[in-house]
Amino acid sequence: MQFTNMLTDNIQNQSRQKVLILIYIPWILSIIVQIDPVISFFVAWLGSFFIFYWTLLSKVRFISLDLSLTKQIMRPIVLIQLIFAGFMCCTSIFYFMDHMGYEYFNKVSRQPFKVNEGTYIIAKCQRMAVLAHAALVTGIILQIKQFPVIRHKLNLNLDFFLIWLCVFCYSFGVLASRIPSIYQFSFGLINVSITCSAFVFVRGVVQKKRGYMIFGGGLFAFNFLASTLTGYKESIIINIIIISFLLYPYYRKTILTLAIPTIYILLYILPTFANIIRSQSWNGEKSATEARTEAFNALIANDEPAIDETNWGFLTNRLSEINMFTRFVEHIPAERDYYGFEILKNSILAIIPRSLWPNKFVTETVSMQRVYEAGVANRISTVSAKTRPVVDGYVSAGFIGVFISIFLYGYITQWICNKAEDLFGGYELGCIVIFNAIFQNLWRGNNFEFLLNNIFYGYLSMFAIFWVLKKSNTIIELHANKNTADNSSL
Fold first, then answer.
1. What's the pLDDT score for residue 275?
2. Would you kindly state where each structural domain of the chain is located, as residue ranges?
3. Residue range 240-252, pLDDT digits in tens
4. CA dihedral in degrees (304, 307, 313, 315; nearest 10)?
5. Three-class SS of residue 383?
6. Which of 332-351 are b and which e, b meaning 16 or more Cβ less than 10 Å from the residue's Cβ?
7. Cα(252)–Cα(58) distance, rounded to whole angstroms?
8. In this structure, what are the phi and psi dihedrals at residue 75, rounded to the nearest 5 degrees?
9. Which chain regions cross the lipid bilayer (predicted)?
């Protein structure tokens, strides 16, 4: 038995190595051709698509073998890689084309493009982005278990439990939102409720159970409509991602067929829609409902010049992270030395509850300080332009900081997912519901101060839910699995 386990581990390690060695080729090639920044940019940009293919579609991909790829797409290697790396690496094409004088891939500048200092900086940022993509995947793959260890199981019917959990988490989430000392726990609980409602709806559709469809679909639709009142694009996109990924294993062709037109519509109309709501409801001019109606009317009127202008600005400066990245690369280390461990220190201090430290700094203020210093935002403006993990990695220690921070990001993310599946009986409840709801901030990432806080209190929330379910005998321990796992580790 021990020999068999050693042989299996050896085969798994060889499979890992094949994947991990080749995903760094795009970064190496982009370094080799960096003398031409345009070529270097496109090598790095296309390199992310190579990493997507190599880790998700190739024959040597390294994923868990307990489920087919289609049925585990909400694990980090798929969902978080696509969203995190997609935003970090792929959306930069719009900013770069704008830099070269294009708008919607049509040449608008009459002057021929000439390589300048800005071109070299953009290419450098793209090279670090593809390095970060490879580091993220490395961290995830090193923590992937081809046969995940599951020590607990749900002691109830999953559909019934999801309805119960949906109501329970929503009730406690609303309650927590009204108590300042535990306010931060409300987001994870409400996210669990939203994910449960979507999951119940999908399972109702698949099983053709009308009651589940009405309950889950009604709650999810209510939440989706509520998200259209906020003025935030991200809340709308998240809801669409959740329902799409849940439906994909059962309706692959339909979802893939609708994917491209849906993405196009969202990117085309959503910026204008959100801007109208913000401009009219945030300043008290109109109610959120009235602003939403006004936004719908504007889109129906199809004011193409206004929509095009708003949308292109969104694609080049808001959707893409590279604009901010280039400003920090210009600023550091030329005008200011690297931050070192300063950001990490503040991130750890930010975890301390204000009830225990009344004079604790305001996390938003501290995290925005480096944004102001780099000239990314003006101090008198009300904009919140917080950095992303790849930027914080760079300002901390250059490209080495990028690699280490994003590697740890992927490593910790997959480790938490493994723990959630272990505690909650596997992929469906552990990964889909608990992990992706409570740790939803890991999809896109945030600055280090908020990110570490989200992870720490999310982990506490996960264990609090587990403790309640364990004490109520809703989740029970699989002693046989536990003994097997213990014996295999000896």
1. 72
2. 2-488
3. 999 999 999 999 9
4. -100
5. coil
6. beeeeeebeeebbebbeebe
7. 19
8. -80, 160
9. 41-57, 77-97, 128-144, 156-176, 182-202, 211-229, 235-251, 258-277, 393-412, 424-444, 450-469
Element (H, E) at 154: strand 152-154
Measured CA to CA, the distance from residue 293 to residue 288 in angstroms comes to: 9
How far apart are the C-alpha atoms of 482 and 152, rounded to whole Å?
A: 9
Q: Is the dihedral of CA 277, 281, 283, 285 positive or negative?
A: positive
What's the confidence (pLDDT) of residue 489?
33
Q: Nearest-CA neighbor of 430 among 66, 116, 27? A: 66
Candidates 243, 250, 211, 208; CA nearest to 224 is 243
Concatenate the DSSP letters of all residues of 125-141 into one string: HHHHHHHHHHHHHHHHH
- Residue 107 phi, psi (nearest 5): -70, 120
- Among residues 45, 355, 67, the alpha carbon closest in space to that of 183 is found at 355
DSSP 402-458: HHHHHHHHHHHHHHHHHHHHHHTTSIIIIIIIIIHHHTGGGTT---HHHHHHHHHHH
- 35-81 tens-digit pLDDT: 999 999 999 999 999 999 999 999 889 999 999 999 999 999 999 99
Q: What is the dihedral of CA 394, 396, 401, 407, to 10 degrees?
A: -100
Provide the strand spans (E) within 13-148: 102-103, 106-107
Q: Which of 367, 362, 377, 389 is nearest to 331 (CA)?
A: 377
**Token pair for residue 226?**
């509520």
| CA angle, 431 then 401 then 374, to 5° | 105
- What count of other Cβ atoms lies within 10 Å of the Cβ of residue 472? 10
Residue type, 219: L
pLDDT score of 6: 52
pLDDT at res. 441: 92
392-449 tens-digit pLDDT: 999 999 999 999 999 999 999 999 999 999 999 999 999 999 999 999 999 988 899 9
Measured in residues, the chain has a length of 490
